[in-house]
């Protein structure tokens, strides 16, 4: 995590979870949580590779 | 074939087809309300109007019933057509202003308000209902009346028995005019109710064509003849119109199939007890009194409430739930089931914990029980956690009656607490923990097969042949053998398979067929030529994802030579077609975009090997389970996602290389570590199935703990049977017994182990393909209850010894006290030793047999005489054995004072201290595992906190280890009685034979590989691997000394070593870095 | 402006979360269509290189699930 902050990535852009193969309900819940939290963060601009500018 | 123009594009259709059918085939959307695939078109709603140009003039026709002809020119979206449809919608809007589907159309055609006089109807007179009713073969309803009076009705507007209440009319009605309620109240005179889903315990309904449940095998729908309309009227057959592959055949008949077999295994299972006969619980009357099986469905994510915990009466979330144990078990008064069902205590605790997890900690869960029977492996821990951590209340009380609380759906009960207090409590929901019973059908089968049953109607077996029925060649497993849980049933089933395998071993491989080997094409160095097959999966994918556009898109991706879509990619004919396309187009990489690789990858891999491709030149894009099924309301994004997934799969497959699978010979011999009863049973089974077997035993004789036992719970003489077994083993030429032998080294792995043993100071090396760990356990030497201070204080096994010696002094005893849980269920040993309750009861009965006047007391915490062992408990009470309960913080005290042996205990009923003067104290000591860390290291298998070995899977793999080729049985797994030890010995042998019988095994191709030049010999891979696959190459080796190497046989391809390698020296074939990066780049392209 | 639809690159363990995702499909449960799954044999395979590269390539987030 420190590495991420050091590199300028917001921690919310990397998420972890543990779901067993029988927990489909949990899977759906986590997908919803992850999606809404990323929506709240907005588009990833800080760490995105900048398009190569042609001088 | 008829060729014509549709919106300027040339299209083709069959003679006799209508415009709408052809348009749908080409994905051209034409709105319609009255069209149904299975019915003759009627042109009633007029919404499907299109413009047809015949060369001279244009006409408006209804496309649903206008046949196509050569050269016609059809326009479906011209301004004129749009204006015409707009008027039709406006008219419909006037007739039915409040119908959602019409409102949606008005929105689509941009009509804010109708110009015509509004009516208040919800029927558009499309006639779909009457046409489908005729199709069903009933014609109970039709369009009656004329002009403005026209409506859908029965003849003379009376309820009729012509209507079979099938509900087809309601299912096709586009506006919701016809409802099931309406059919019940004004159409049919028949009993109208949904078909209950058997799987969901009737809490949900199902269709006449159905798959019993999502995981059913085979996962194909079946038609329930008892409710299908076709089998009642000869009509319908609508399903055949929808099946894309003509798989439905209504003329199929039941067939009698005769099979010639050498053995039969009975596994008919049990049925849950039906509590509706218990009036006092009102199960049939109160909706909130449910069975535990119904609770299982309610808690299940795939259940009727999607796992949302609600009560049935009002779908409110319950705040208080009670479980009643022993409903239909341990009960002779109301249901004649004297046995314990073994599983209900544990499932009730599990349900209570899951309910709390679903609903949060404010949910109050109370379990009302007689004895808490958590005698399975790790069950006692679960019970303790439920109590201490989750706060589930456990109340020792049998509740007599459930009363409804007037004016509410709540339920009131009255019970007596342990301290004798009478309490009234109200619950939102009560779960009856119903037991197991054998169904009448199974009893009938048993009668026909002429096999003997027990008093509880279970299959009669003996302790030494626990899966053998009374009839030779017929074996039994699962709950029909006796009430049992999943692990025990799985052990049983393996054992029954071994028993059948023993008598049929000479027939092994006589009916197998060899597969035709297709030579592999060398694709090395070739430029990737990728074929992409996008599956429609009927409507499963194509109903949401625009499949043709995904295939079209795939064709534009780099290296893709060929892309197409299929109706069902997994069907036999498509598979054959796939092979010929691969050959024809010379494809060398394949992507199938369809369902999940977890179920279908092996099938497609086999298909491409039939075309000569290496099976690893393949990748799947999961556009069904991960896409169309979960985004059905968002077809656009689902299609975009499908394209992304296909792009990612194409990027990955382009980088795949052919991988090889090493072939490994399995040495056809076994090593059994431990010569106790379980190890001997394993060895006998292995030898009888044709494999050389070595038993190594550290003591000087075979038999293990069974040498100390007098009788089994069924009353069989253990020593007599044991000596028969030992003689049989000594006579068997395939079994080699090594006594006083110690394992000192184990090398190798599955298929080729090399074990060195030391017997009488002599070393010997044994080569074997598999190993069975059967090292057993030992009795605890007690340190409490004054043990060792007086010869009259014995352990259970010491008492057994006196029975065996027929000690005459036992007859003269006046009194005996048994103390249970000596060292079990204590903080330092938080498990139940499983056998002691039954053992003490059996010994108490034996003392009674020798001296019926003896006073016998059994001091216990919970009596755990599970299954039909319960009869012994009942018999003991009837014979006057007195049972006194104690709690772990107020244990009995044994003292020896001037030759007087006394036990003091607080009586749980009187609440007063009792003093028992006695001639004998028998201590039911715990069973303690050997905690053999050396052996665990030799075979790389784990031990749990208690010191027992840890099996591959607690439920589904109880007799084997996660490490390939190593198996487990007997008390090394968990304490168990003789019958269960034998059954697990056979089970371990059975699992071992599944490997041995294959003669050789193929390793996976997707495994890790070391690039020696990059390896820094740091050893991280060796330490992190859970399967012990990496090792160092010997320093003296000629190539790469000291570098790491990975054993392809042991590697499971998890990639842990790959990620942890600091030098980047390990690659995971099939999931290589470049492949994963390619996927990442493709997904972000 | 249309709502922001993030792209979430998801690394799912074949034996756990990938199976749960399959089962969610079998149960026809709906969830947002923003995740893009890369199947990995085990989360042990996960390396920081992967998520850094995904973010650098323009993913809005990375989700790793075992």
Provide a quick synopsis of the model.
The complex is a heterotrimer of chains A (55), B (1085) and C (66). Chain A contains two helices and one strand; from the N terminus they run H-E-H. With 55 residues, chain A is mainly alpha-helical.
Characterization of this structure:
The complex is a heterotrimer of chains A (55), B (1085) and C (66). Chain A is mainly alpha-helical. Chain A has one domain. Chain A is 42% helix and 7% strand. Chain A is built from two helices and one strand. Chain A has helices at residues 2-6, 24-41, and one strand at 14-17. Chain A is elongated, with a radius of gyration of 15 Å. Helices cover 27% and strands 21% of the residues of chain B. Chain B is an alpha/beta fold and 1085 residues long. The radius of gyration of chain B is 36 Å and the shape is globular. The mean pLDDT of chain B is 94. The two termini of chain B are 43 Å apart. Chain B folds into eight domains: 2-108, Ubiquitin-like (UB roll), CATH 3.10.20.740; 128-242, no CATH class; 272-437, FAD/NAD(P)-binding domain; 440-507, no CATH class; 530-653, Rossmann fold (3-Layer(aba) Sandwich), CATH 3.40.50; 665-778 and 937-1001, FAD/NAD(P)-binding domain (3-Layer(bba) Sandwich), CATH 3.50.50; 780-928, 3-Layer(bba) Sandwich (FAD/NAD(P)-binding domain), CATH 3.50.50; 1004-1083, 2-Layer Sandwich (Alpha-Beta Plaits). In chain C, 29% of the residues lie in helices and 26% in strands. Chain C has two helices and three strands, in the order βαβαβ. Chain C has helices spanning 17-26, 48-56, and strands at residues 8-13, 35-40, 61-65. With 66 residues, chain C is of the alpha/beta class. Chain C is flat and about 35 Å long. The longest helix of chain C is centred in the N-terminal third of the chain and has 10 residues, at 17-26. Chains in contact: A-B, A-C, B-C. Chain B binds chain C through residues 214-215, 301-302, 306, 596-599, 622, 624-627, 629-634, 637-638, 640-641, 644-645, 648, 1006, 1053-1056, 1058-1060, 1068, 1071, 1073, 1076-1077, 1079-1081, 1083-1084, and chain C through 5, 7, 9, 14, 18-19, 21-22, 24-31, 33, 36-42, 44-47, 49-50, 53-54, 57-59.
